[in-house]
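Inverse folding, one chain.
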């Protein structure tokens, strides 16, 4: 089994090396991540989502080398660690261009398929360059072939507009938190990206399943509806939610601690929800209050009031 790609060549489901595997600040190599990445690659799940702050370069270097695959056979995303909204932490490297060069050397691959600014929290006083200048470093990465595509993560519409004003290459991908219970990470961002031809990736797509409250009226209604779809299609709720994200035109980024679940991920494209079912999940999910937000709460929680 393999994962279909978008028209621009991005595999339509990714395996994430953050969250469960996030090990910022730890130098111990996580053999579980090495093993599951190798298994994912061998099964055909070949879109790997990494980031500087996940600190998984050693694991990826090992998994890729031991996979026996050539670079063209798998898709790697890396993210430059811009830091958080309090500007207290950031990348070890002096700028996004130098970070990507160091990453490629550490992981022993010639290029990244996608390189993202992990967040927009960049300013001259703390980073030595502005957000627009950071984007220029990203453009340099693309120009030199170090990154096939460049993009952003966790940007508001205003942040994207700031970049678009000065960009020679516009962001090709925007990675945001997105699930049935959080359908706009920040106001208007999904429609804005769609209107500007920026492909969207959804992290934490399974939030409704892992963190949703089934004791609320909407949570229960949503779960009941997923139960009915589970029965109809003979697919798990995990698969139904991932397929819903895909049918919304967004690339889900999920992860797992269990090898058995990789087969579930690989079997997301063998069924199709009807337009009415996609609409019903969208409508019930949108009623969930407050929206289910798991990341960047100090920065974006204000939008949930
Ligand atoms: N750009 C950014 O700022 C961010 C990017 N990310 C990226 O997105 C990736 C995925 O994020 P994440 O939030 O983990 O994504 P998901 O919402 O897909 O959650 C994945 C988790 O869901 C669990 N799960 C799956 N099915 C079920 C089920 N039926 N019942 C209970 N639990 C289930 C898995 O556990 P199990 O082990 O049991 O399968 C796994 O730990 C990250 O690894 C990272 O690469 C994440 C956060 C921020
Ligand atoms: O996977 C992730 N876990 C995180 C925690 C805080 C900020 C970003 C992330 C990720 O990208």
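Residues assigned per position:
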């Amino acid at each position: 089994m393999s994962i279909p790609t978008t028209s621009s060549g991005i595999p339509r489901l990714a395996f994430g090396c953050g969250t469960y595997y996030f090990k910022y600040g730890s130098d111990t190599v996580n053999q579980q991540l090495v093993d599951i990445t190798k298994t994912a690659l061998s099964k055909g799940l070949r879109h790997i989502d990494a980031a500087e702050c996940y600190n998984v370069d050693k694991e990826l270097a090992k998994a890729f080398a031991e996979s026996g695959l050539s670079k063209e056979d798998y898709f790697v995303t890396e993210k430059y660690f811009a830091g958080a909204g309090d500007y207290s932490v950031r990348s070890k490297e002096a700028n996004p261009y130098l970070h990507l060069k160091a990453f490629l050397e550490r992981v022993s691959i010639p290029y990244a398929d996608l390189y993202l600014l992990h967040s927009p929290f960049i300013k001259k006083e703390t980073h030595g360059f502005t957000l627009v200048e950071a984007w220029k470093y990203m453009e340099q990465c693309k120009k030199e072939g170090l990154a096939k595509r460049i993009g952003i993560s966790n940007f508001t519409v205003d942040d994207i507009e700031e970049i678009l004003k000065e960009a020679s290459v516009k962001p090709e991908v925007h990675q945001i938190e997105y699930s049935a219970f959080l359908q706009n990470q920040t106001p208007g961002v999904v429609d804005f990206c769609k209107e500007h031809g920026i492909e969207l990736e959804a992290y934490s797509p399974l939030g409704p399943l892992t963190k949703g409250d089934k004791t609320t009226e909407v949570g229960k209604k949503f779960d009941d509806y997923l139960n009915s779809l589970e029965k109809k299609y003979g697919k798990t709720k995990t698969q139904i939610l991932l397929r819903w994200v895909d049918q919304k035109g967004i690339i889900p980024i999920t992860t797992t601690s269990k090898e058995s679940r990789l087969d579930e991920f690989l079997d997301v494209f063998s069924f199709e929800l009807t337009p009415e079912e996609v609409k019903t999940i969208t409508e019930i999910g949108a009623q969930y209050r407050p929206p289910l937000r798991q990341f960047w709460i100090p920065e974006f929680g204000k939008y949930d009031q």
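The radius of gyration is 19 Å. The chain has a mean pLDDT of 98.
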